[in-house]
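Dock zinc ion; give full complex structure.
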Amino acid sequence: MSVATSNKAGSGDRPVRVRTRLRKGDTVLVTAGKERGKTGKILTMVAEKNRATVERLNMVKRHRKGQGAQSPGGIVEKEALLDLSNLTLVCGRCNKPTRINVRVLEDGKRARQCHRCGELVDS
Ligand SMILES: [Zn+2]
């Protein structure tokens, strides 16, 4: 008799992408975690996970087993992913962690801009 009404929204398992204005190559400050207060350059962005790796930060040691002559194994250090919400852009001009404004230029292109000093981040 009764019609099933299971229209619950938001049951998808795709993680919601956090809007980030950070990009590969940006210098960022880590604001939380064990690397808090340190700065580095973004090496890779993993947008699906809202994470990124930062040069020489959050290093983890991986113990590799040797697999023949080409890969002798041993301890390999590599950057582990950091959450994007714990990263803040450091402006190259005022040298401070800053928020990023996005400005639409006259030619329709979007440029990122330092919230503090107005310096364009992309040039
Ligand atoms: Zn600035």
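Observed: Strands lie at 27-30, 39-46, 51-54, 59-64, 74-79, 82-83, 87-90, 97-98, 100-104, 110-114.
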